[in-house]
């Protein structure tokens, strides 16, 4: 039995609310159970210096957690400096989103996706990727509506979900009690067409077999399907 009482194939409730901030070109609040992440996308009509005159656009991401997003208060990273975990997660978000972007169609501009965790209960990087894509989609829609780009640079949806082996069973969408006790923990990033973008899997106390990995991939495939459905519903 999972701590939440969910079936091994059952996702936490997912909701995505769009246009939740006034100033960002794209924004959403994604809730995956008790994990809540605010995602905003900001357009800059410049690219990093190393990309200047390349004709290509760029999508990047930043990630952070509010001090009381977790059970006990964390010190703000603005005070102590970014942790290695934060840097790793924001690079993952950026890589994941760029995998479904035609950078030549985007033109020589940068879109920065900020993912700020309001409340954490496992799967914050996956929620950030899923919600970050929605914010990116909304920002690109504004570029297209304004006639600033002639073709859609987003080639597919991008979503991510966690899976793992908890109490000897492969389970979908780990919450914190499961994540902290899982023998195997994995994050799966896919396109809407179920093409793999990135897989992060590690044994946390027990090794796993090829068959178990395939089972987790199957669970992730179903979970991403649910998340893409939530993205489409949120965008209308």
UniProtKB/TrEMBL annotation:
Top-level EC class as recorded in UniProt: transferase
The Exoribonuclease phosphorolytic domain, residue ranges: 10-139, 158-220
UniProt binding sites for phosphate: 85, 123-125
Gene3D superfamilies hit by this protein: GHMP Kinase, N-terminal domain (3.30.230.70)
Swiss-Prot/TrEMBL catalytic activity: tRNA(n+1) + phosphate = tRNA(n) + a ribonucleoside 5'-diphosphate
PROSITE patterns hit by this protein: RIBONUCLEASE_PH
Keywords: Nucleotidyltransferase, RNA-binding, rRNA processing, Transferase, tRNA processing, tRNA-binding
Gene Ontology biological process terms from the UniProt entry: rRNA 3'-end processing; rRNA catabolic process; tRNA processing
Function noted in UniProt: Phosphorolytic 3'-5' exoribonuclease that plays an important role in tRNA 3'-end maturation. Removes nucleotide residues following the 3'-CCA terminus of tRNAs; can also add nucleotides to the ends of RNA molecules by using nucleoside diphosphates as substrates, but this may not be physiologically important. Probably plays a role in initiation of 16S rRNA degradation (leading to ribosome degradation) during starvation.
Family per similarity comment: Belongs to the RNase PH family.
Subunit structure: Homohexameric ring arranged as a trimer of dimers.
Protein name, entry field: Ribonuclease PH
Species name: Kangsaoukella pontilimi
Lineage: Bacteria, Pseudomonadati, Pseudomonadota, Alphaproteobacteria, Rhodobacterales
């Amino acid at each position: 039995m999972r701590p939440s009482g969910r079936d091994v194939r059952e996702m936490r409730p997912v909701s995505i609310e769009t246009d939740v901030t006034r100033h960002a070109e794209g924004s959403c609040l994604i809730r995956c159970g008790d994990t809540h992440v605010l995602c905003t996308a900001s357009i800059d009509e410049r690219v990093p210096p190393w990309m200047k005159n390349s004709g290509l656009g760029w999508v990047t991401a930043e990630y952070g957690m509010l001090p009381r997003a977790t059970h006990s208060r964390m010190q703000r990273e603005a005070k102590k400096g970014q942790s290695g975990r934060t840097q790793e997660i924001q690079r993952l978000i950026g890589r994941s989103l760029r995998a479904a972007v035609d950078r030549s169609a985007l033109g020589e501009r940068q879109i920065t996706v900020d993912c700020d965790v309001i409340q954490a209960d496992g799967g914050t990087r996956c929620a950030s990727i899923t919600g970050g894509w929605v914010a990116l989609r909304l920002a690109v829609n504004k570029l297209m509506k304004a006639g600033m780009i002639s073709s859609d640079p987003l080639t597919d949806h991008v979503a991510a979900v966690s899976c793992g082996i908890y109490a000897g069973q492969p389970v979908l969408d780990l919450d914190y009690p499961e994540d902290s006790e899982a023998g195997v923990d994995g994050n799966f990033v896919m396109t809407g067409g179920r093409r793999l973008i990135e897989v992060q899997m590690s044994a946390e106390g027990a090794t796993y077999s090829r068959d178990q990995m395939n089972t987790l991939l199957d669970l992730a495939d179903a979970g991403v399907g649910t998340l893409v459905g939530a993205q489409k519903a949120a965008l209308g």
